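Take a minute with the sequence and fold tokens given here and flag any structure token that looks odd. Thanks in advance.
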Amino acid sequence: MMPKVPQPPVPRRRRIPLSRFWLDRRINFFLGGVCLLVLFAALLSLWGAPRATPSVAGSSPAMHRERAQYYEGIGQIEEAIREYQAALHLSPGEPTLHQSLALLFDRQGRFPDAVASYERYLEIDSGAADGSAIRTRIEVLRRTQ
């Protein structure tokens, strides 16, 4: 005796058939949309969001120093210089800010500004451990001007 094979369910009366073409087209449309979203997100991250310049009110020298170090790390030296200058506006007696600003000026070839910042650094911190190296660098920069 043969086993009884189950019968397929009774088909519905108003069934709308989906052709393979229509299903493939919907999948392609969905995948194309996902690809466009990924591409848009990648372009947005590359270009970055528009930058808003923060006001000095409510800011701190430490915040500006962190921003300057970030900009310096990604190679935006002009932005880093602006941030160090904003930090110096809030805390003019901080020797490390003068030293960092002098190093950026030096790297950019703005030697008169570098000399002024180095001198201000030595004026504030006369017993700096790197004082002799800084004085030597000032002399070299003065000769190149």
About this structure: The chain has a mean pLDDT of 82. Residues 61-144 form a domain with the Serine Threonine Protein Phosphatase 5, Tetratricopeptide repeat fold (CATH 1.25.40.10).
